[in-house]
Amino acid sequence: MLRIVLDTNVVLDLFHWANTDAVPIMTALEAGRIECLVDERTLDELRRVLTYPQLKLTPEMIAERYARYSARVSVVAAGEAPPLPRCKDRDDQKFLELAARAGADLLVSKDKALLKLRGRTKLAFRILRPADVCRLLAEPATAGPPQ
């Protein structure tokens, strides 16, 4: 089973916008083919973002989206992450730290600052765009774990 960390924009794609590009990720999550990892900092960010006026969510809608997401995740305890590169966007550092601390296979993001770190440093996990993860999920199960 793939262990993944989703940045907040990808969570919104799945649980708010219902972005069709991310459907394979949602399908895999619901089927138990992937484990989505979170910690209190990433959940706090999601709670905050869900209140942004541009999303035009009522309190009931906020509660529904948060409940749907939180029911499908595994919460990782706080702790120290191994040494990591610094993300240019400080708000995204928490996703790197969570992925490293939790032993994730993938960090899924559309954020340019996170994506720029790919290939620049050796990480124990891969940073991929949602479309790349969808292609990975479409591969036969015999393909083995991601490298």
Any overview of this molecule?
- It is a single chain.
- With 147 residues, this protein is an alpha/beta fold.
- The chain has a single domain (2-141), classed as 3-Layer(aba) Sandwich (Rossmann fold), CATH 3.40.50.1010.
- The protein has helices at 8-15, 23-31, 40-49, 59-70, 93-102, 112-115, 130-138, and strands at 2-6, 34-38, 73-75, 106-108, 126-128.
- It has a 5-stranded parallel beta sheet, sandwiched between helices.
- α2 packs across α7.
- Residues 142-147 have low confidence and may be disordered.
CATH class: Alpha Beta
Give the number of domains. Answer: 1
CATH architecture: 3-Layer(aba) Sandwich
From the N-terminal CA to the C-terminal CA, the straight-line distance is 14 Å
Helix content: 40-55%
CATH topology, by name, is: Rossmann fold
Content-based structural category = alpha/beta
The CATH homologous superfamily corresponds to 5'-nuclease
Poorly predicted parts: 142-147
Radius of gyration: 15 Å
Mean pLDDT: 90
**What count of helical segments does DSSP give?**
7
- What is the count of β-strands? 5
Largest sheet: 5 strands, parallel
Shape, please?
globular
Sketch the topology as an H/E string, one letter per element: EHHEHHEHEHEH
Strand residues, percent: 5-15%
